[in-house]
Write a structure and sequence with these properties.
The structure holds 2 protein chains of 2 kinds. Chain A contains 15 helices and 17 strands. Chain A is α+β, with helices and mostly antiparallel strands. Chain A has 3 domains: 288 residues, no CATH class; 113 residues, no CATH class; 59 residues, Arc Repressor Mutant, subunit A (Orthogonal Bundle), CATH 1.10.10.410. In chain A, α2 packs antiparallel against α3, α7 crosses α9 and α12 crosses α14. Chain A is elongated. Chain B has 3 helices and 3 strands. Chain B is flat. Chain B starts with a helix and ends in a 5-residue tail after the last strand. Chain B has a domain of 38 residues. Classes of the chains: A alpha+beta, B alpha+beta. The structure holds zinc ion. Zinc ion binds next to loops of chain A.
């Protein structure tokens, strides 16, 4: 039997507020253990949590940017469970009235664009961090808890089970990351756990509409981990089903070192969260005017920006997709064009030499030693004919390590294109004299033979001659 | 409402309570009485009543995103039964 995978993601996205969701403790990453804690986030009795206004703003913006409907009446609920990373023994989250519902985002797949539906986006608090005394949670006799992260605001973005492969899941998560970066509500630093996914995976026979039993893998914090975990789990479930077995609904953990998923806990009542309305937090009521204001404040979103680059500059859908793949890259492109560069050349340089150099040194575009202004100026020199495209590669290489303006580099290194006819003429004469065979071939009717002569001239001028001019001069002399 | 021994056991597990078996009948009886009392409310016609999500007539109580001093770590850990290197120390997390 042929099976297809049915995958849904719950993405936890840490918001970039200064303070926690219900108290004034700082959210900064990397502080000493238990120094960003107070009676509220430690869950001491008698405290009164208060909602951080910014969290609601960010959540509504995230909802609008993912085509959600905003719930104008929203509230928090208590999700009860016992785990030492949760000092109150409940997580303050949202249950039946989340801030945003019924959205969608489009992703690029092999078969073209595909719409992934969002079930909901809700606000909640993050939990603390456990440091185990053993090598893992199972062989640790005790654990140490750091509550700095407890109460850091999160959005949980829940997709419908619309994803069909590990690759689609990755592309979807990347899209969510891109959108959250564009609207500037999260730093989206994967290595700091700003973006983590819980993944639901089940299999069903191709053509079937019923969902199979699913397993859940929690807290996956890299794109590679996401793909590997899904591929492993799909294979594992396929083997179980093909052997006539059945899938147990359970939570499994992804072990990146061993490259496999392991069963975690499957107590039947472990998921009885007994949600109840949070009595300490009054409901959030949002007006149409406020929603309109937040919508106005949104920047141009990735899909719209991509369309603009295609329409205004004639970039291909693929190129525009790559360039708008992050806000930083899209802004870099706009700045290169604003510096006077031709848009298509700008795209080629960004996706060519710039991307190659950044990758080689593992840099982000924000860290690029060649900023947008200098790249724009360099591309301007190509368009003006000051340098050839070939020489431009040398100039770019120079710019990578030297902070000077491209004009200065071109002058200092003597890379200016020779456009002076008399200077080129002498070299053309030399080349004609020294290449009898090619000259005779050309005169004998093989017009292609001129290419070898052009090459010789370019070589002698170390690439600085203007190739069109060389061509013209050679033709004149050979035909004349 | 008829509370069973299974119901009591389930609630006890969820609440992390150990209930000695000789005390179970007493708790079952109490829970049963309590739930029967609550059941009386079911007789009220609530067809036209929206569910209450919050008891008081207030909404939109927010604070600005401004950092306030956190607790001194010693104070934060002062009630912890076990601590180590500035951490709260807890017993084994998962059962086998
Ligand atoms: Zn706090």
């Amino acid at each position: 039997m042929k099976y297809e995978a049915v995958i849904g993601l719950e993405i936890h996205c840490e918001l970039k507020t200064k303070t926690k969701i219900f108290c004034g403790c700082a959210t900064g990453f990397g502080a000493d253990q238990n120094t960003h804690v107070c009676p509220v986030c430690l869950g001491l009795p008698g405290v009164l949590p208060t909602i951080n206004k910014r969290v609601v703003e960010f959540a509504i913006k995230a909802g609008l940017a993912t085509n959600c409907e905003i719930n104008k009446y929203s509230k928090f609920d208590r999700k009860n469970y016992y785990y030492p990373d949760l000092p109150k023994n409940w997580q303050t989250s949202q249950y039946d009235l989340p801030i945003a519902i019924h959205g969608w985002v489009d992703i690029d797949t092999e078969d073209g664009r595909k719409r992934i539906r969002l079930t909901r986006i809700h606000m909640e608090e993050d939990a603390g961090k456990l440091v185990h005394s053993g090598t893992n949670i199972k062989n640790s006799l005790t654990s140490n808890v750091d509550y700095n992260r407890t109460g850091v605001p999160l959005l949980e973005i829940v997709s419908e089970p619309d994803l069909r492969s590990a690759e689609e899941a990755r592309t979807y998560m990347e899209k969510i990351k891109t959108i959250m970066q564009y609207i500037d509500v999260s730093n989206c630093r994967m290595e700091e756990g700003n973006l983590r996914a819980d993944v639901n995976v089940s299999l069903r026979p191709v053509g079937s509409e019923t969902l199979g039993t699913r397993t859940e893998m929690k807290n996956i914090n890299s794109f590679k981990g996401l793909e590997d975990a899904i591929n492993y789990e799909v294979e594992r479930q396929r083997e179980v089903l093909e052997d006539g077995g059945h899938i147990v609904q359970e939570t499994r953990t992804w072990d990146p070192e061993r490259g496999m998923t392991l069963s975690m806990r499957s107590k039947e009542n472990a998921h009885d969260y007994r949600y109840m309305p949070e009595p300490d937090l009054p409901p959030i009521v949002t007006t149409d005017e406020q929603i309109a204001k937040y919508r106005d404040e949104l920047p141009e979103l990735p899909d719209a920006r991509r369309e603009r680059l295609e329409k205004d500059y004639g970039l291909s859908d693929y190129d525009a997709g790559i360039i708008t793949g992050s806000r930083a890259s899209a802004e870099y492109f706009d700045a290169v064009v604003a510096a006077g560069a031709d848009a298509k050349l700008a795209a080629n340089w960004m996706m060519g030499d710039l991307a190659k150099n950044l990758n080689a040194e593992n840099l982000t575009i924000e860290q690029s030693p060649v900023d947008a202004k200098r790249l724009g100026a360099m591309i301007g020199l190509i368009s003006k004919g000051t340098i050839s495209s070939k020489i431009a590669k040398k100039v770019f290489k120079e710019m990578w390590t030297c902070p000077d303006d491209p004009e200065k580099i071109v002058k200092d290194k003597g890379l200016v294109q020779i456009t002076d006819t008399s200077a080129i003429e002498g070299i053309v004469d030399e080349v004609i004299a020294a290449n009898e065979k090619a000259v005779n071939d050309y005169k004998g009717g093989n017009k292609k033979a001129i290419g070898a002569l052009v090459g010789q001239v370019m070589k002698k001028t170390r690439g600085k001659a203007n190739p069109q001019m060389v061509n013209k001069l050679l033709a004149q002399k050979l035909n004349g | 409402m008829k509370v069973t021994k299974d119901d009591l056991d389930n609630v006890a597990v969820l609440s992390r309570l150990t209930i000695p078996s000789e005390e179970a009948p007493q708790y079952i009886e109490q829970l049963d009485k309590f739930l029967t009392y609550v059941d009386n409310l079911a007789q009220v016609d609530t067809e036209e009543v929206r569910p209450t999500t919050y008891a008081l007539p207030i909404q939109n109580v927010f604070r600005d995103d401004v950092v306030k001093p956190s607790l001194d770590r010693e104070a934060a850990l002062s009630n912890a039964p076990l601590k180590e290197d500035g951490y709260f120390k807890v017993p084994k997390v998962l059962e086998d």
